[in-house]
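Record type: ASSEMBLY
Status: queued
Input:
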Amino acid sequence: MKQLLEFAKFFAITAIIATLGLTSCRQDDPVDPPIDPDLLGAGFYLLNEGMMGSNNATLDFYDYNTNKLIHNIFEARNPNETMGLGDTGNDLELYNGRLYAVINGSSYLEVIDATRAKHIAKIAIPNPRYVAFNGDFAYVTSYSTASSPYDGGDGSPAGFVAKVDLNTLKVVDQCTVGRQPDELAVVGNKLYVANSGGYADPDYETTVSVIDLTTFSEIKRIEVAPNLYRVRPDGKGKLYVSSRGDYLMNPAATFVIDTTTDAVSPTPIESENITLAGDNIYAISVTYDAEWNPTNAYLTYNITTDRMGSSFITDSTDTEIVSPYGIAIEPTTGEIFVTDAVDYFSDGKLNCYSSAGTLKWSVTAGVSPAHFAFFTPSAAR
Amino acid sequence: MKRTVITLILVFLCVAVAAQSVVPIDSIVVTARRLHEIVPAQILDGQQLTRLETHSVADAIRYFSGVQVKDYGGIGGLKTVNVRSLGSAHVGVFYDGLAIGNAQNGVVDLGRFSLANVESVSLYNGQRSDIFQSARDFASAAAVYLRSRRPIFESGRGSNLSLRIAGGSFDLFDGSALFEQRLGENLSASANVQFLNTSGRYKYRYSGSGAGGNGSTGWDTTAVRRNGDIRIIRAETSLFGSIHRGEWRAKAYFYESDRGLPGAVIKEDNAISLRNEDRQRDRNFFIQGSMNQEISHLYSYRIQAKYAHDYTNYVMPPTTTLQTMDAHYRQQEAYISMANLFIVNHWLSANLSLDGQYNTLKADASKLFNKNFPQPRRLTLLGAAAVSMRFTKFSAQTSLLYTHTHDTSARELPMAADRNILSPTLVLAYNLSNTLEIRAFYKDIFRLPTFNDLYYTQIGNRALRPEYTTQYNVGATWRKSWNQSPLVSLSTSLDAYYNRVHDKIVATPTSNQLVWTMINIGRVRIRGIDASVTPQFRLGNGPRAAHIDTRITYTFQDTSGGDSVPYAPRHSGSAIVGITWGHPYDKGQPWSLNYSFIYTGERYRLGSQTSANLLEPWYTHDLALSRDLSLRKATIRLGVEVNNIFNQRYEVVRWYPMPGTNFKLLISISL
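Status: finished
Output:
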């Protein structure tokens, strides 16, 4: 027994010395900060819109290291946030390390720490639609009405753009635009806002409102086409604006505004669901026959050559997509992401295609997956 | 409101003017020979129904097996009934024999009907297996029949008057009056009015932790349900007459309501989400009549006619942050039917029914809506031929329904094509012994696309096909009664079925989320079992005995063979135990205690069948106690009710919270 105690003492002392020795050996090495298990690596966020009245807008994160989609990361990381993200997501953007989710049904802008998917703040904006940024401010379109209640004409209220101070996270100003404004984009010192008029059919809006960012007031309206939807700048002074059409005479189409002259010209893109990456516009076109059977097409258009290209899905796996919905292009690899909303109430799908248009993988996402924000940790810190 | 008061006065005047002579006779005798239904219905009537009288018809139907009532919460909320997961638009609702229609959206809100004036509620799977009926009785996949109270005069009385007042939780006030008058040897009348008002306010609580949270950690919120108020005025007057070997009935019905639609509970921030401000005003009016007579032992006829006018005003006020709306919908229905019964001999009879129906819908909403809405009109012609054979042990019925529709537009816009459809049914029954009977049925029927499905601006799709259902059912009933035993009688029934729905009409968004359309895409398969046990007990002997009425149901449904059916539980059930006791014994015992229980098992909401969409089972316990007192010639009833005794948090439809424990007090006086 005594021998055993002696051995234990010897063993303990040796172990302490060895540990000290090893520690001192490493003292010259740089000390890593404690690893935060919540920190996210490179990947992208995906906002699933959910179904109206169901509180099932969800945020997923696709991790490039594990190649796995983490479902509903917002609720998992923020268990104290009442009813998760809430009802009906409508837009998602990443700006200076923060993620901004526009939650339409629940009427607020959710501000999230993109490095950990942790809630920072909620900013109340009624019936919000899309968000854009410039300097220390975010701009959010709203179908609801600001101070001037009516636009005259058909008696339908005009929408507005809310200006949010990103330091105080408060709405600091409002600017009335056309009825039911959708996407918006900053070009130079101007904000271009697509007015839809979607509540007042058949009296759709046909204009883009132009707001001077210094005075934050509307300076003009550019006549484009009925029921405007998307606004995508190419970074070289051109702005691509899509129209949903009026379901009567005018089909869906995309137009281009030269922001130096504000002159409008047509493009051959017969679609409203567009995204712009590099020199190409990728568009999903859905047309219907008399019995509402849809035909889906996946179009490309080169903005430097002004030519339509071939389908961006090249391996004929496009027939597996039931209801193509969201589209995004990975900024470095050129991979193409297309979501499938299927029936708009079941869980949708996220499909990844190589830049050459072949299906790489497909996973189940949330309900009506639609909006992407690509995340790089180094850029965020 | 002013118009309502005038209508009420008119209703009373009609009855008063008609009340001239008071000649006591026995209650009116039904002379037409009754042909038995060969498959029994589920029925709630008599004292079992009386004990549920403060509820709506939808609440009572929950105690039937094979039924799911969709309840959006509260008293003012919409309540629709779905039988064996076929879809609520497949369930026909008949009030005193005539269908309550809704050509606009095909759904009848059963929350609208109070049990205060209803004598029996019956549910038939397939169809009522009584061939002497209108063609429309053959035309739905399942049917709910409501029969309003008909006057019964105790000897020496020429009139009955009863007043009833109930009040309780959610600021409920419910008052009604019933007046019945004998007008002659072969004629009596009744008038019934009801006023109901409630704020619909109740506390609810939600909590969770992560997806599908269990409430142990994380968020927890309590709020008050708002915009769930309703005000209802209902007035009915009926005439009941008998003729040589026959009888007739006429009824005028008026209903007006103004309600808030509380909507789903959604995440809100800083109370700027003003979405639940929607209001709905309804005004329904109909007159209907029916007459049947036995001309000879060989031939009887039944004539029915109805005119209905339904008005709905849906308002989303300018204060909403969403699209404002002020839409008016006016529907009219004219209906006439003649059923002809031929009794060939003691085992063979046949029926031929011809119905004509005309529906119109006028809508006044947004500019686009008005521009493209065809203001549809539909002519429906129905013909049904049915044969019934009855032998000592074996019975069979078969029917063939022919449906023709022709849609036109008041604005000469293109419409759906005409339809001509044949739908067969076969019902068989066999008595194995005095106590045991087995049965089977097969039925093929469809529901037409509604006016909204076909023509609603932007949403509607004129190319829609009807939604077809096929039902197969086998079942058995075992019944026995005993004289000298605490168990007085026992009846059990068990049915197994297989239902198919194809070309199911489903709403789907187009590439633009703001624009939806209707398509024939769904395909549903339902396998199920309905079971019920109804024992009656007597405890003690003679006048001191207590009587116990019990009804237990169990429903099993498996919908995995086709598209998922939202809110269809795999297991559900109910139980009612009613006990009466005390003196006097003969006129109905004065004390009555009713316990009822509802269980709904796990089910999925609309969406993928994942844990995030799985809803927890819920079960509620309700108790009602009443005491009848005799005061000279009057009978006074005092009642108290406690519903959801254990204050269970539950929702029938996701994000529509149901009330916790709630109370009701009732006083009624019958003179």
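Annotation: The CA atoms of residues 120 and 182 of chain A lie 25 Å apart.
Annotation: Helices of chain A lie at 2-25, 73-77, 377-380.
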